[in-house]
Amino acid sequence: MKVLHVYKTFAPDDFTGVPRVIHSIAKSLSTCCDNTVLTLADQPAASQPLEVDGYHLYQVKRAGKLYSTDLSISIFGDFRRRAAEADVVHFHHPWPLMDLMQLASCSQTPSVITYHSDIVRQRLLKPIYAPIMHAFLLQADALVATSPNYLKSSPILQRYRQKASVIPIGIAARDAPDVSLVRHWKSKVGEGFFLFIGTFRYYKGLRYLIEAARLNGLRVVIVGSGDVGSLGRNLPDNVTVLGPVSEVDKEALLTLSAAFVFPSHLRSEAFGVALLEAARAGKPMISCEIGTGTSFVNVDGLTGIVVPPANPDALSAAMVQLAGVPGLAAKMGAAAIERYRSHFSEDGMSSKYLQIYQRLAASA
């Protein structure tokens, strides 16, 4: 069965969020599906396609952006050809140009849309884009939300609830980090700290975490890429900013941490894969209630604590509670790893998508 995945960006330009989900699905289904990813790139590889972990990657030159929407004219022809060759097209929303590609091609290939997120910020674009988006969503044969929370809270998804299903994002299991690597990081940052991992974006709520650390004096380690200056000046002494680190380094830091803090305060944080990584490591979590998948991964009172968004006092109190109540962090961490195993495995996610692919292909 040939499956074509379509999204605006992919590795090496971007390997966070949606690209990582696509990679997980394509890699884990490589033995039963011929998977191809069609995407844009700033510098496409000279030799096409690229072979990546058992699937194919086609890159088309990115022409620029308009209202944060990645643009290309040449991808329309590439999409038309690839879609005609596929048994199923798997779209990953949002990307407005993708909607136009599908509608302009008049493709008859069965399609599924994974609805990763609403478009949150682009108010000027929404009135123009809305009719196109709804035409695109209407023509899809299947629609998938990544959590029941997002399906319930998204006004767009509510209009298509009858044909929408939920497939949570899943990630692969990991071996314990090397002991020498853990020892290396322990010598640098110690242990028992509160850890954040993620990109320094506007919706991550890091200023509230830093203020919470200033209030309670507990140690915080911040890991990620982006503008360090956006974190503000005169960081408190109990906050350490490491910048980006490797995947194995992340696992070592998670091992050393007492808990994971994820202060994202806006709906642009549609799921929070970093929370899955913390749950997989058996760490209790602190996150904010923003009506998205973050509160599906981190269940308040079970796997961690959920607080109101943009509220450093509430964040601080949750951190103090986890640090001060004997046995609470260990209890919630044990529940977190169990929830990861039962709800968020990579194989579980991929097998559910395979069922959709098989159903759609059989009905064509």
What do these coordinates show?
The protein is α/β, with parallel strands linked by helices and 364 residues long. The protein has 2 domains: 2-171 and 345-363, 3-Layer(aba) Sandwich (Rossmann fold); 179-343, Rossmann fold. The chain is 40% helix and 20% strand. The protein is built from 14 helices and 16 strands. It has helices at residues 18-28, 75-85, 96-105, 126-139, 148-153, 155-158, 179-189, 206-216, 247-256, 273-280, 294-297, 312-324, 328-343, 346-363, and strands at residues 2-6, 34-41, 50-52, 55-61, 64-66, 69-71, 88-93, 111-115, 142-145, 164-166, 194-197, 220-223, 239-243, 259-262, 285-288, 304-307. Strands 3-4-2-1-7-8-9-10 form an 8-stranded mixed beta sheet, with helices on both faces. The mean pLDDT is 96. InterPro entries: Glyco_trans_1, Glyco_trans_4-like_N. Residues 187-338 form the Glycosyl transferase family domain. Pfam families: Glyco_transf_4, Glycos_transf_1.
Number of strands: 16
What would the average pLDDT be, to the nearest integer? Answer: 96
What would you call the quaternary organization? single chain
Strand composition percent: 15-25%
**CATH architectural name of the largest domain:** 3-Layer(aba) Sandwich
Write down the Rg: 21 Å
SSE order in H/E notation?
EHEEEEEHEHEHEHHEHEHEEHEHEHEHHH
Tally of helical segments: 14
Distance between the termini: 12 Å
Coarse shape: globular
The percent range for helix content is 40-55%
**CATH classification, class level of the largest domain:** Alpha Beta
Pfam family, one: Glyco_transf_4
Domain Glycosyltransferase subfamily 4-like N-terminal: 17-171
Keywords: Transferase
Protein name: Glycosyltransferase
